[in-house]
Amino acid sequence: MRALFLPLALGLLAAPAAHAAPTLIAQGTLSASSAGPLADLSGLTGKLENGMAANILGGVGSGLAYAGNGIFLGVPDRGPNATVYNAKIDNTVTWIPRFHTIQMALTPAAAGSALPYTLTPTLRATTLLWNATALTYGNGADVGAAAGTPGQNTAAKFFFTGRSDAYDRAKTAVHPENGRFDPEAIQLSNDGKFLFLSDEYGPYVYQFDRVTGARVKAFKLPGNLDSPILSPLGDTEIGENTVGRTANKGMEGLAITPDGKTLVGIMQAALVQDAAVAATKKLVRIVTIDIASGATKEFGYMLTDGSGISEIIAINDHEFLLDERDGAGLGDNSAAKVKKMFRIDIANATDITNLYGQQAVDAAVKKTQFLDLVALLGANGVTPDKVPAKIEGMAFGPDVTINGAVQHTLFIANDNDFLTDVSGQNTFYVVAFTDADLPGFVRQQVAPLN
Predict the structure, then answer these.
(1) What is the predicted pLDDT for the residue at 415?
(2) pTM across the whole model
(3) Which of 62, 68, 106, 205 could pair covalently with 219 via S-S, beta carbons 3.0-4.6 A apart?
(4) What fold, for 23-433?
């Protein structure tokens, strides 16, 4: 990718720890692996139904988590469905959901460089996601397509799939044996052995073994998120359901508290029943899940500038950072306007599981802006039309030292929809901030795998 940044005045980084605002310190891209250009390390060969490679490397920044020692986990979504294949299944294919293990080498840049650090991402592993018992897949007959069962299945290993028709016609959207899975966020357990993924199809929140990729648990989410009428077409689901998540706008973000005890998911947009009421058209529901007991609560968040939420990460056990954005920018042939990170606190917030309308609005959490990414990138020479439209992944990374002062880092990633020529490469931005910028920050400590 051509250089996007103008020289940055490094003098801005010479201030003590309480400098005025978060600062861009590095950018890197991931476009290849030891398997070749735009190839992941899944070991898959051959082509998907739409002609794209089964091991295509893309969409890496749909979700991001830090595993310590410079290792991050990145998750792509349901696969390359931006390429036309079969409109009756929203162009989805038998892409096997997976996660990537990425080494992020963040090193001081040479004197005179545009940014003070250099970021070099290297793909270390790709792990496919599967279940030990049978899943439901589409037979393809009703949509004019081949059967949707992954060809890699065995008698003891049933892979999840991106195909939108892979569900039990007699069940609702959250049935855990549906084979379809559209992961959008990823987090790690404190012992480093398990990962948690949320998705848009259910919505689901699943726990997987980090080493094998096997699902070990499905969490039960509040019933008001469930869609009773399913379809391979997202627009049809939207039109026929009067309750539940909006199709393709399910649980887009997922956080885990630093103590590793609570998952915090957030829907991308208003539930169907909330969107039908003027007062709650911009109400987004946050769901907390006690990992040990499975108990849940809901809290409300009101959108302001953006059209939806792409991510949520934990600042501490009660405060969180959310990515509110529009869909404009690189990949949308337009100029990005809203890619903002807001801080919220749920410590004394009201559970709105059973609240709707103005009552839910009145109980919504308060928020304050932490970062305007479009403005920050613009100050470093990135015009709005070159800001990725889908800024979706966020994770707090390792600390760095700049001019003798220790600062924290926030890694921000995009989902390029597997379309490098349209949406740019898998890109990572590194933002440095101090305790003064984000008071109360506590990083999750994940134990390294042996």
Answers:
(1) 97
(2) 0.94
(3) 205
(4) Neuraminidase (2.120.10)
